[in-house]
Amino acid sequence: MSSVPTDLFPHPIVQAPMAGGVAVPQLAAAVSEAGGLGFLAAGYKTADGMYQEIKQLRGLTARPFGVNLFLPQPETADPAAVGVYAHQLAGEASWYETELGDPDSGRDDGYDAKLAVLLDNPVPVVSFHFGVPAREVLESLRRVGTFTLVTATTAEEARAVERAGADAVIAQGVEAGGHQGTHRDLPVAAGSGLGVLSLVAQVRESVGIPVVAAGGIMRGAQIAAVLAAGAAAAQLGTAFLAAHESGAHALHKQALTSPLYTRTELTRAFSGRPARALVNRFVREHGPYAPAAYPDVHHLTAPLRKAAAKAGDPQGLALWAGQGHRMARELPAGQLVEVLAAELAAARTSLSAGGVR
User: Fold this and answer.
1) With contact defined as beta carbons under 8 Å apart, do 141 and 118 qualify?
2) Measuring CA to CA, which of 169, 264, 267, 282 is 20 to 30 A from 194?
3) Which of 321, 11, 10 is nearest to 176 (CA)?
4) The dihedral of CA 303, 298, 316, 327: what is its sign?
5) CATH class of the domain whose range is 13-73+108-248+330-351
6) For the whole model, what pTM was predicted?
7) What distance in Å separates the CA atoms of residue 125 and residue 67, rounded to the nearest whole number?
8) Beta strands at 275-278 and 178-179: parallel, antiparallel or unpaired
9) Which SS3 state, helix, strand or coil, does residue 38 take?
10) What is the pLDDT of residues 11-50, one digit of tens each?
11) What residue spans define the domains of the chain?
């Protein structure tokens, strides 16, 4: 059986590959240097843009790191529904004095070109989101020495990941911020989705490959809990969103602990795919009407999000955040890894001693 290469990153702490300019080389380098596993997000970048970030990261650290890819998406969107949503967003375009984006700007995110780069210039770890890559893709990465992970949100999806030949599965609970890595675009229903502890337990009993737990994890004690449930490591996104090296917009970082934002919800408002965000004006006004159309809606709203950022208006931003966002700590990423590791060690000591806190 494959094993998560925790000998390559001493602490069982993986920094989530947050797309949209958050998971920059400086963040990934700081996490890896501190003994975690830093990640770059190749999503929404060109193949050359990804390659340049890999080169930059390698100049910052000699430690292992990962790169995340988005799987190409099938053409299932209803053009008429996208058109109706574009009409609804016309007022936003007028308000921000910009044009809506072209919903037909591409569906594959440069997947093949990025794979070619990663096969020619292998990296230690590659993960996949929004589906399961072909077996030959996983085998080709294994041949060049790359460890592979694939996101799953159910035990059934985890079994598909194992059948395809991935080295490990990321069990993403519904608490997670940003996009749910479901293999099919499913309806968003209140109360749907499994929490990370239940999911890890189910996945652990369903597959023989290692499990990396993700979803709302913000403290070392939570890492200890998912490890006790059977995970080999924990992946944290929102916890690193507020880190000094994070590329997130300052307004996004501030919103994580702002009393103005009292909850998160899964919404299609910004991308057409379920993603957990802080509830702001854009989510309230447009979330109920956004169609299941990814990446069409992502392309459509991209100029709006850029204009909102330029205007300093958090009410128009995609404020991705997990359910534990209020526990965010604004620390240097390396220090955050050290704090998490210390909290994990303390929690493990307490558990082994049978202590109750």
Assistant:
1) yes
2) 282
3) 321
4) negative
5) alpha beta
6) 0.95
7) 6
8) antiparallel
9) strand
10) 999 999 999 999 999 999 999 999 999 999 999 999 999 9
11) 13-73+108-248+330-351, 81-106+262-318
